[in-house]
Design goal:
The complex is a heterodimer. By secondary structure, chain A is mainly beta. Chain A is globular, with a radius of gyration of 13 Å. Chain B has no helices and eleven strands. Classes of the chains: A mainly beta, B mainly beta. Chains A and B meet through strand 4, strand 5, strand 11 and strand 12 of A and strand 5 and strand 10 of B.
Chain lengths: 115, 110
């Protein structure tokens, strides 16, 4: 049973560039959430996708956007990268039961460095 | 005020010791609570859910105090392999995301 997978594992980008991160949820899960974890901090919620729609969004600017595909996989896009976007980006999958989210399981993350 | 607050530590304890972590949450109507464990440069992994009645899994015991809005994690007979960061996590009402504390760093010393 494959767990949550993310790609790439590491990425180095330059300020102003754009980046796309990818996530495949755990088998049987239908909901994908994205989190940003800066060094020394807990993960911060970016947004969540369910039924191919953004269901909820955290306090992140519009430079952060996403998508969910029919197979439940998801992408996170960040435009106009800033140095402060350097972080570990975590994807978490879960199963919505009666539209209520229960435990979330995390992928290994993508470590993004912006120079 | 932050949704979830934790003492960042670090906690340095000898093998075999008992250690307890607390965290507080701001939304009194929150319904779901969890403890996650995160090893250095790895993803958070669900350690245990926290139920109103408290729950135990081997050496780990989690408790919820709704009146004081805090959650605790007790680790008995600490092992070297318990060294990690422990994240307190809350799912507020009406939200489908998780709010994480900053984590408490534990180092178990031989």
């Amino acid at each position: 049973d494959a767990g949550v997978t993310q790609s790439p594992t590491h990425l180095i980008k330059t300020r102003g560039q754009q980046v796309t991160l990818r996530c495949s949820p755990k088998s049987g899960h239908d909901t994908v959430s994205w989190y940003q974890q800066a060094l020394g901090q807990g993960p911060q919620f970016i947004f969540q996708y369910y039924e191919e729609e953004e269901r909820q969004r955290g306090n992140f600017p519009d430079r952060f956007s996403g998508h969910q595909f029919p197979n439940y996989s998801s992408e996170l896009n960040v435009n106009a990268l800033l140095l402060g976007d350097s972080a570990l980006y975590l994807c978490a999958s879960s199963l919505a039961v009666s539209r209520v989210i229960h435990e979330q399981y995390f992928g290994p993350g993508t470590r993004l460095t912006v120079t | 005020r932050k949704e979830v607050e934790q003492d960042p530590g670090p906690f340095n304890v000898p093998e075999g010791a008992t250690v307890a972590f607390n965290c507080t949450y701001s939304n009194s109507a929150s319904q779901s609570f969890f403890w996650y464990r995160q090893d250095c440069r790895k993803e958070p992994k669900l350690l245990m859910s926290v139920y109103s009645s408290g729950n135990e899994d081997g050496r780990f015991t989690a408790q919820l105090n709704r009146a004081s809005q805090y959650i605790s994690l007790l680790i008995r007979d600490s092992k070297l392999s318990d060294s990690a960061t422990y994240l307190c996590v809350v799912n507020p009402p009406g939200a489908n995301n998780l709010f994480f504390g900053t984590g408490t760093r534990l180092t178990v010393i031989p």
